[in-house]
């Protein structure tokens, strides 16, 4: 048994839904037992959320435009994917769900208020729509299938917008509902992203939550693998738009995949795969648009783990803040004070480095948070600034992080030297370096304008293109 999850681009229109359906049918009719999870059609969740906010602010224009678009996109897809005999039923169901959206938005408009619970009810509609389209398409392509709303499977707490599953009750319900269907040879097509509280209120698992759904179902059903169908050939050694010779990594560990995600690669959110990791269920990343092409298997212990550096990733739009002062030497609590001041602003820190002389601490944040962070630090360190223990707090804007990811880099001498060497030859200045406490990554800060060149240089240095 495998879970197959299709993301929003894989079901972006009627044509694509049929393509996904053929992939499902191929698995179901060649001895496999697929359990399908599907996201909303591309862009739909965003549109729903935007429109619900517009309703709360009485912006009727945007709301009406969204309603019209939802009807036309889903009706168009419904006409495309349904066999003639099913077209009428599917259209009726699709229209009823868009009507539900209209009604919810009217209520939000009257109240002039959008609660997290209301927002979840609205946001869930994208998957409740797409699941019907895909199930119908699978039947059209020749395998019995049923649309299932995960509200009846996934029991969550009531943290609307970012709910957590309660795994034990979820496991019970999922098995009770899905196993008999599978036994009958019916492929369940389940909504990604959503669940419900024990009381039955609809919740969502956080943006991009369909991967989470796939991992949860995989965990509950003890599947052999979870397949994430997306629009790229698995996880690559670098972004192919930056490095043309980038290639697909055949295997990766959970930890390496997590590290890549933290550093901006569009892999899979570490939190969302936890249920699968806990059972050591392998996760395969595949391309809907190139189903026979290369894919990546994410496992606990990858084979062929010889490569020290496996992938290079980068994040742009950052800023490097430095707190500097000779008086910081040996004074305990400076770092604690610094990071709590930043954390109080809700600013997340991507990378930290402290020189061993302890005369400066620098850290990287998103560029748009620079002003807020500087103000918070100046306030927090006002006494130290006055007493000259801290001399200067400043920001260098327009920087980027390049991260080299791979297991075992930390233990091997010379990796950093090799990284610096590669960049030195290109004349790229390394502004700061940090080695994460995990052994999986070394990150460098460079000027944003040089980051693509840096990624290419490191990719070449470690011969990742093969
Ligand atoms: N449709 C949801 C979102 O856009 C969930 C997902 O796509 O995974 O966040
Ligand atoms: Mg999506």
Structural class: alpha/beta
Strand order of the largest sheet: 3-5-2-1-8-10-11-9
Report the sheet with the most strands, covering strand number, pairing sense and barrel closure. 8 strands, mixed
* Count of discrete structural domains: 2
CATH superfamily placement of the largest domain: Acetylglutamate kinase-like
- Might you state the CATH topology name of the largest domain? Carbamate kinase
The rounded Rg comes to 25 Å
Percentage of residues in strands = 15-25%
Explain what you see.
The protein is built from 15 helices and 17 strands. The strands form 3 sheets. The protein has an 8-stranded mixed beta sheet with strand order 3-5-2-1-8-10-11-9, with helices on both faces. The chain is α/β, with parallel strands linked by helices. It has 2 domains: 2-230, Carbamate kinase; 311-461, VC0802-like (2-Layer Sandwich). The mean pLDDT is 93. The protein starts with a strand and ends in a 5-residue tail after the last helix. It is globular and about 75 Å long. Helix content is 42%, strand content 21%. Helix 11 packs across helix 12 (370-380). It binds aspartic acid and magnesium ion. Aspartic acid binds next to loops.
Key terms:
466 residues, Carbamate kinase, 2 domains, 8-stranded mixed sheet, 6-stranded antiparallel sheet, 15 helices, 17 strands, globular, binds aspartic acid, binds magnesium ion
Short précis:
The chain has 466 residues and is an alpha/beta fold. Helix content is 42%, strand content 21%.
SSE blueprint:
Layout (H helix, E strand, L loop, with lengths): L1 E5 L7 H15 L5 E5 L5 H13 L3 H22 L2 H28 L4 H8 L1 H17 L3 E4 L6 E2 L10 H17 L3 E5 L2 E4 L4 E3 L5 H12 L3 E6 L20 E3 H9 L11 H5 L4 E5 L8 E4 L11 E14 L9 H11 L6 E4 L5 E7 L3 H11 L1 H5 L5 E14 L9 H11 L6 E4 L5 E7 L3 H11 L5
Parallel strand pairs: 1-2, 1-8, 2-5, 3-5, 4-6, 8-10, 9-11
Antiparallel strand pairs: 6-7, 10-11, 12-14, 12-15, 13-14, 15-17, 16-17
Bound molecules: aspartic acid and magnesium ion (MG).
Magnesium ion binds next to loops.
């Amino acid at each position: 048994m495998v879970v197959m999850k299709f993301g929003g681009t894989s079901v972006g229109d009627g044509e694509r839904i049929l393509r996904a359906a053929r992939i499902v049918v191929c698995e179901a009719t060649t001895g496999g037992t697929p359990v399908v999870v599907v996201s909303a059609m591309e862009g739909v969740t965003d549109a729903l959320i935007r429109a619900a906010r517009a309703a709360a602010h009485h912006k009727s224009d945007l709301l009406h435009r969204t309603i019209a678009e939802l009807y036309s996109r889903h009706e168009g897809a419904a006409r495309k994917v349904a066999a003639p005999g099913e077209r009428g039923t599917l259209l009726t169901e699709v229209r009823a769900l868009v009507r539900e959206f209209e009604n919810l938005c009217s209520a939000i408009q009257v109240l002039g208020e959008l609660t997290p619970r209301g927002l979840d009810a609205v946001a869930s509609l994208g998957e409740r729509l797409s699941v019907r389209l895909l199930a119908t398409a699978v039947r059209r392509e020749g395998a019995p299938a049923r649309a299932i709303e995960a509200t009846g499977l996934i029991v969550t707490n009531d943290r609307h917008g970012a709910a957590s599953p309660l795994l034990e009750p979820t496991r019970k319900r999922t098995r009770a509902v899905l196993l008999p269907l599978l036994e009958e040879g019916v492929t369940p097509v389940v909504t990604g992203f959503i669940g419900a509280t024990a009381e039955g209120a609809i919740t969502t698992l956080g943006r991009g939550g369909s991967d989470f759904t796939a991992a949860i179902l995989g965990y509950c059903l003890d599947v052999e693998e979870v397949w994430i169908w997306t629009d790229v050939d698995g996880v690559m050694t670098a972004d192919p738009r930056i490095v043309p010779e980038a290639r697909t990594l055949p295997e990766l560990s959970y930890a390496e995949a997590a590290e890549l995600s933290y550093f901006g690669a569009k892999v899979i959110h570490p939190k969302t795969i936890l249920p699968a990791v806990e059972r050591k269920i392998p996760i395969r990343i595949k391309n809907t648009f190139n189903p026979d092409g290369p894919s990546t298997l994410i496992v606990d212990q990858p084979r062929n783990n010889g490569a020290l550096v496996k992938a290079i990733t980068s994040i742009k739009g950052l800023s490097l803040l430095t707190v500097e002062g000779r008086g910081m030497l040996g004074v305990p609590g400076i770092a604690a004070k610094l990071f709590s001041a930043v954390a109080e602003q809700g600013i997340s820190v991507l990378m930290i480095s402290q020189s061993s002389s302890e005369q400066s601490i620098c850290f990287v944040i998103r560029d748009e948070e620079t002003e807020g962070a500087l103000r918070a630090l100046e306030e927090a360190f006002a006494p130290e600034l006055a007493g000259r223990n801290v001399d200067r707090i400043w920001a260098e804007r327009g920087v980027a992080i390049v991260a080299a990811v791979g297991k075992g880099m930390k233990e091997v001498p010379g990796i950093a030297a090799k990284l610096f060497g590669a960049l030195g030859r290109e004349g790229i200045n390394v502004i700061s370096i940090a080695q994460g406490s995990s052994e999986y990554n070394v990150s460098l800060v460079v000027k944003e304008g040089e980051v693509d060149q840096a990624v290419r240089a490191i990719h070449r240095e470690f011969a990742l293109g093969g």
